Amino acid sequence: MKLLKLSPAAFALPSEILLMMPKFFLPSGELYDLYSTVYRTIVAFLVSLPIGIVIGLFTSKISLVKDEASFVIDFVRSIPATALIPLFLVLFGPGDLSKITVGIFSGSLVIAISVLVGYQSLNKDRKRVSDLLNLNGFKRILYYELPEISPAIFVGARTAISLCLILVVVSEMFIGSKSGLGRIIMDRRYSDDVPTLYAAIVITGLVGYLINRLFLMIENYYKHKLGFII
User: Fold this and answer.
1) Tens digits of per-residue pLDDT, 198-210?
2) Which of the two residues, 26 and 125, has the higher pLDDT score?
3) Phi-psi region of 137 (alpha: psi -120 to 50; beta: other; left: phi over 0)
4) pLDDT higher than threshold 70 for residue 104
5) In whole angstroms, what is the distance from residue 13 CA to residue 151 CA?
6) Residue 177: CB partners within 8 Å, gap ≥ 6?
7) Are 144 and 130 in contact (CB under 8 A)?
8) d(C-alpha 208, C-alpha 11), whole Å
9) In the chain, pLDDT over 90 holds for what percent of residues?
10) Which residues of 37-54 are buried (b: 16+ CB within 10 A; e: fewer)?
11) Tens digits of residue pLDDT in 19-52
């Protein structure tokens, strides 16, 4: 029985990958690529968060268009964002804007749907209390509705920022990019520097993990320090 022999052109040893990882944190190495991906991801998320919340709030408030708007949001969300990368490339060019916009597109839709889900589980007792307190307009949204739907918003936000990271990396791979982890992954596919290829993949996973942990910390702070019920 022949043993499977792994080709060094396709695989790298774990020790080789670990040796390559520190250069992603050095100015003389791939630090700028790491920074570029993280920067694009954060910008895409920070823009998509208020957009998604506003879309969700508007859709929930306007009962006349609620069903139609929900259908449109769900339909558009079902379109693979990667299939729209060529469209964003045509509209915004090969620069950062196209990569960031891809993340904004999907991230805002995920958050909007999370807001809609949150509105479906509003506490009726607290609703009656808010009615007795005559909370209307912006005060009702700020002091009653947002705290109530905050668990759904946090779940949507964590999903959205992970999606932003994925789409930014994918757009860096397929849109002519001069920097980013996606560019490294794409370029190293056609070189002998296989350890750097796998190191970039591991670093991408590490970035996603750290972002997720950060959001868990923010959620716990919001839960225990600000006094809202999550």
Assistant:
1) 899 999 999 999 9
2) 26
3) left
4) yes
5) 42
6) 94, 99, 171, 183
7) yes
8) 23
9) 18
10) bbebbbbbbebbbebbbe
11) 888 888 888 878 888 999 999 999 999 999 999 9
Judge whether residue 59 has pLDDT over 70.
yes
**pLDDT recorded at residue 96:** 84
> Which token pair is 126?
């607290």
Q: What is the residue-wise DSSP string for 65-95?
A: SHHHHHHHHHHHHTS-GGGGHHHHHHHH-SS
At residue 230, the pLDDT reads: 43
DSSP secondary structure code for residue 137 in this structure: H
Q: What are the residues whose beta carbons fall under 8 Å from the beta carbon of 98, sequence distance 6 or more?
A: 85, 88, 89, 91, 92, 171, 175
Phi, psi of 177 (to 5 degrees): -110, 140
Three-state SS for 178-206 is CCCHHHHHHHHCCCCCHHHHHHHHHHHHH
Q: Using alpha carbons only, what angle is made at residue 171 by residues 166 and 177, rounded to the nearest 5 degrees?
A: 130
- Return the C-alpha torsion angle 165, 229, 142, 139, nearest 10: 170
Using DSSP's 3-state secondary structure scheme, residue 133 falls into coil
CB neighbours of 130 closer than 8 A, spacing ≥ 6? 140, 143, 144
Predicted TM-score (pTM) of the model is: 0.82
